[in-house]
Amino acid sequence: MYVSNRHSKGETRRMNFNGTFELEDTTIEEVWLALSDPVLIADALPGCEYLLHVESDDVDFTELSDRADERDAELTGDPEAIAERAFRQGEWYAGQIQVSVGPVNPTFETVVHIDERDQPRMSASGEGSSGDSSFEMSSGMELHETDDGGVAVEWETDADVFGKVAGMGQRVINPVANRLVKRFFGDVQSTLRELQLAEADTPTPAEDEEGGIVDRLLGRSSSNSS
């Protein structure tokens, strides 16, 4: 798991967030495909300006912002296009996320490491900093079928929050976190309906020999092996 000692000085608050969100009229494969797409995640996550693959946790955010401005990445329901840019186990991703916590509106420069990606489970860890506030976190999710033809996403995040945001207290931070999670999964549900993401078919032998699209989407390619 990725661990960093870089954080803002000042008050510290350790927090845990968890819950289950149900997505209707969909399958585990469709939800896994959606949650594997950095472009869809950035689009659905409130306040996220961009989320891009990087080589390590040493990120030049000025250069990354320029790269984000120049990219040509759109939401798509094409499984092959998503497979090419999907999150990969052991890789790093970085972005900028603005969060409103009471009267404070920090924009966090955030770096995330994909610790595990093996359908139906994914976990990540990372940190974000914004002047007088910062956080370090580890997060995981697991997908389950529901009895009424949907998918339940069980998720949990442990976070250490530092600085000015930590001083807001749990009564302020918890409702903000719950609101962000509800908006995020609501947007994922809407995007799934709009794009009608196709459930991946069983790979042909030729596809399997080449590390085909289904294996890549399910996190089973050799590059994703731990």
Percent of residues in beta strands? 25-35%
Overall residue-averaged pLDDT value: 85
Structural class by secondary-structure content? alpha+beta
Number of strands: 7
Instruction: Record the strand order, biggest sheet.
Output: 1-7-6-5-4-3-2
Going by CATH, the homologous superfamily would be START domain
Shape by Cα distribution:
globular
Number of helices: 7
Q: What is the CATH class name? A: Alpha Beta
CATH fold-level name: Alpha-D-Glucose-1,6-Bisphosphate, Chain A, domain 4
> How many domains make up the 3D coordinates?
1
Uncertain residue ranges: 1-5, 197-214, 216-226
Rg: 18 Å
Please give the alpha-carbon distance between the first and last residues.
Answer: 12 Å
Major beta sheet, specifics? 7 strands, antiparallel
Instruction: Encode the helix/strand succession as letters.
Output: EHHEHHEEEEEHHH
Biased composition (Low complexity): 122-141
Protein name: Carbon monoxide dehydrogenase subunit G
Pfam families: COXG (PF06240)
Region (Disordered): 117-142, 196-226
Secondary structure: elements and pairs:
Blueprint: E1 12-23, H1 28-35, H2 38-44, E2 48-54, H3 61-70, H4 79-85, E3 92-98, E4 107-118, E5 121-130, E6 133-145, E7 151-163, H5 170-195, H6 205-209, H7 213-217
Antiparallel strand pairs: 1-7, 2-3, 3-4, 4-5, 5-6, 6-7
Helix pairs in contact: 2-5
Q: Could you characterize the architecture of this molecule?
A:
- The chain is globular, with a radius of gyration of 18 Å.
- The protein has helices spanning 28-35, 38-44, 61-70, 79-85, 170-195, 205-209, 213-217, and strands at 12-23, 48-54, 92-98, 107-118, 121-130, 133-145, 151-163.
- A seven-stranded antiparallel β-sheet has the order 1-7-6-5-4-3-2.
- It has one domain (12-224): Alpha-D-Glucose-1,6-Bisphosphate, Chain A, domain 4 (2-Layer Sandwich), CATH 3.30.530.
- Mean pLDDT is 85; it is low at 1-5, 197-214 and 216-226.
- The protein is an alpha+beta fold and 226 residues long.
- A hairpin with a 5-residue loop joins β6 and β7.
- The chain contains seven helices and seven strands; from the N terminus they run βααβααβββββααα.
